[in-house]
Write a structure and sequence with these properties.
Shape: rod-shaped
Number of helices: 11
CATH architecture of the largest domain: 2-Layer Sandwich
Helix content: 55-70%
Structural class: alpha+beta
Protein name: ATP-binding protein
CATH class of the largest domain: Alpha Beta
Number of strands: 8
Keywords: Membrane, Transmembrane, Transmembrane helix
Radius of gyration: 44 Å
Strand content: 5-15%
Largest sheet: 8 strands, mixed
Strand order of the largest sheet: 1-7-6-5-2-3-4-8
CATH topology of the largest domain: Endonuclease, Chain A
Length: 333
């Protein structure tokens, strides 16, 4: 009822005209009013109809003006917003930069604890290449190289291995590295990082590379020596690159091969190798290495490679290098 009453109030003039027309029509049919009254009523109804039409036209024109004004205001506001929208959605806009930042974060997976070892194990299983850059390569010669070779043998596939470590003949970089390692937690009781130990670890990695090369026709290996130390270790396989640090408690980063930064790190390692000193491992073929190389064989090997051992290294030191190379232990086991 309230809705009907509201409608009548909004359309009162039309309602009155309709009511008047019905009343006069009924009275005219019953001859209850004269013809003059009927004519007057008709004129009144026509007047009400004209008033209603004029009112509706006025409302429509008013509404059209309001709509046009809203359109103009909206156009002006959009014109003002275009430069700001360009800053947001343009090629160099905030939206694109935000999207790139989110994408770059999603490219990298952070590994903790045992996840690091599992990721390295999985990377070794099916790869046909491995590029390493780090300190002295202890973990590489103890775990990575032997396991990659074993998987390659099972697949009857070739393996290309690249190693970049600090130069054992460069006393300055060995001293920097030893000082850095001493600042970390020690590997075990009674074992300290010194210049001599750093040299032995690097020499052992070179010896291990030559020893494995002589025993596998599937292996091609490239060894580089750097005068610059790095606090990071890069392990790049055909499936991913894993970046770790010397402290095993520090989270590692993994980037899969389909991501942009995998190729960036691949280029980085390539240029780093090109700026390092190459070890002519092919010259190692001049010296036959036994399953347990002798001290004399090792001395002749390093002489052939252009890496003569320090004069201070006696036979016991050379035997220690052989032990570290051939019977290397996983430092994080």
């Amino acid at each position: 009822m309230a809705r009907i009453f509201t409608w009548v109030l909004k359309n009162l003039d039309a309602f009155i005209g309709l009511l008047l027309a019905l009343t006069v029509a009924i009275l005219g049919l019953n001859n209850g009013v004269s013809q003059d009254v009927v004519n007057s009523a008709i004129l009144l109804i026509l007047g009400l109809l004209a008033q209603a039409l004029l009112r509706d036209r006025l409302r429509r024109e008013t509404a059209e003006r309001e709509v046009r004004q809203v359109v103009r205001d909206t156009r002006d506001r959009l014109t003002e917003l275009v430069p700001q929208m360009q800053e947001i959605i343009g090629p160099e806009g905030v939206l694109n930069r935000t999207r790139e930042a989110i994408d770059s974060v999603s490219m990298v997976r952070v590994l903790h604890g045992s996840e690091v070892g599992l990721a390295l194990t999985e990377a070794r299983r099916h790869t046909d290449r491995w590029d390493f850059k780090g300190g002295t390569g202890t973990y590489t010669r103890a775990v990575t190289l032997p396991e990659c070779l074993e998987h390659a043998r099972r697949r009857n596939a070739t393996l290309h291995f690249s190693i970049e470590i600090i130069d054992p003949t460069d006393e300055a970089v060995c001293e920097r590295y030893a000082r850095f390692r001493r600042s970390l937690a020690p590997d075990g009781p009674g074992e300290q990082w010194t210049v001599d130990r750093t040299r032995k670890e690097s020499y052992a990695t070179v010896l291990a590379a030559c020893w494995h090369r002589q025993r596998s026709g599937l292996l091609t290996i490239d060894v580089r020596l750097s005068a610059q130390m790095t606090t990071f270790r890069y392990d790049l396989s055909s499936s991913c690159v894993i970046i770790t640090q010397e402290n095993p408690q520090t989270p590692a980063l993994r980037i899969d091969h389909q991501e942009l930064y995998y190729n960036r790190y691949n280029i980085e390692l390539q240029y780093s190798r090109e700026q390092s000193r190459r070890v002519p491992v092919e010259a190692a073929g001049q010296v036959k290495l036994d399953d347990e190389p002798s001290v004399e064989q090792v001395r002749r090997l390093f002489t052939a490679l252009g890496l003569p051992l320090p004069r201070s290294f006696g036979d016991r030191d050379v035997a220690d290098i052989v032990s570290r190379a051939i019977q290397a232990r996983n430092p994080y086991a």
